[in-house]
Amino acid sequence: MNVLDHRFRRVEPWVGFAEVQRQLQRGGAFLVAVDPQGRPNAMTIGWALLGTAWYQPLLLVLVRPSRYTHACLLHSGQFTVNVPLAGMRKELEFCGEKSGRDVDKFKELGLRWEMGREISVPVLIDCDLIYECQVVSRVDLRPESILSPEVLGRYYPHGNLHTLFFGEIKAAWRARQKA
Question: Which of 34, 83, 95, 133 could join 29 via S-S bond, C-beta 3.0 to 4.6 A?
Answer without folding.
Answer: 83
